[in-house]
Q: What sequence folds into this?
């Protein structure tokens, strides 16, 4: 084997090892006591910064950057899900029409009205959505401007007022909830309009229900890359303070869901482009 080939192989190995360690993987505790108080499951993630509990407030937060002003209008081949006029493309998760407020070109969460979902269902897609957390700041941590957008009704990109607001990094604004921390915190101040541009490729399941291909996310927050083709290691559903759901087989398409978490978060200019798998 010549010297040049040896160096190429070594370089490839180093790059592969580095890429695999960026986001970390949620695993059950390898310690002697895998459960916490009252039998709570405790899961750990191994990263370049150490081993951390899921939702660990001691985990290092990403650096803060100041985003530019970016507003995306739907291209000609997009499915417009909300243009500021009505909620005809949406229904309540409880059944019947969506009961959120629509005014001045935006929709707003009505506390207690419940989550809403699109009438149409989608798989892999490009999704653009704009949101604003309340200008009047109340609460802290997860209680401040909390909502979320769910792809296929399953996988949550967190919405939160993370402008000078401390919480666990895998639950801050832009996180793939409980799974992946954003590369940077690109939040604008409360009350200002922000945007997500999400490139999502759905997971594929075999006939036995096992994952053949994991879901991937590329996300820009206010035009800033915060997830770079990240493989989702499992579900994002809440199991307890330090655990999230695993992958569970589901259909190839599902709705886009917006979350009622009790905070009057606003949304506008929502459109989607279905992508081939």
A:
């Amino acid at each position: 084997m010549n010297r040049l080939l040896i160096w190429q192989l070594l370089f490839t190995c180093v790059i592969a090892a580095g890429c695999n360690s960026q986001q970390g993987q949620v695993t059950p505790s390898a310690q002697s006591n895998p459960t916490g108080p009252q039998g709570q499951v405790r899961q750990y993630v191994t990263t370049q910064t150490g081993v951390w509990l899921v939702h660990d407030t001691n985990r290092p937060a990403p650096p803060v950057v100041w985003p530019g002003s970016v507003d995306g209008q739907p291209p000609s081949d997009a499915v417009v899900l909300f243009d500021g006029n009505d909620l005809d493309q949406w229904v309540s998760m409880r059944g019947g029409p969506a009961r959120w407020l629509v005014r001045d070109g935006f929709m707003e969460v009505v506390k207690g009205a419940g989550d809403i979902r699109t009438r149409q269902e989608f798989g892999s897609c490009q999704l653009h959505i704009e949101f604003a957390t309340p200008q009047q700041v109340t609460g802290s941590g997860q209680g401040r401007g909390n909502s979320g957008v769910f792809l296929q009704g399953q996988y949550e990109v967190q919405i939160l007022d993370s402008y000078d607001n401390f919480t666990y990094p895998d639950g801050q604004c832009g996180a793939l909830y409980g799974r992946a921390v954003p590369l940077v915190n690109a939040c604008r101040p409360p009350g200002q309009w922000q945007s997500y541009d999400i490139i999502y490729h759905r997971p594929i399941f075999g006939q036995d229900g096992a994952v053949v291909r994991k879901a991937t996310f590329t996300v820009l927050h206010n035009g800033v890359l915060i997830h770079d083709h990240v493989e989702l290691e499992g579900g994002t559903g809440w199991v307890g303070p330090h655990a999230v759901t695993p992958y569970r087989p589901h259909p190839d398409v599902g709705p886009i869901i917006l979350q009622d978490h009790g905070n009057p978060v606003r949304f506008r200019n929502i459109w989607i482009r279905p992508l081939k798998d």
The longest helix spans residues 3-20.
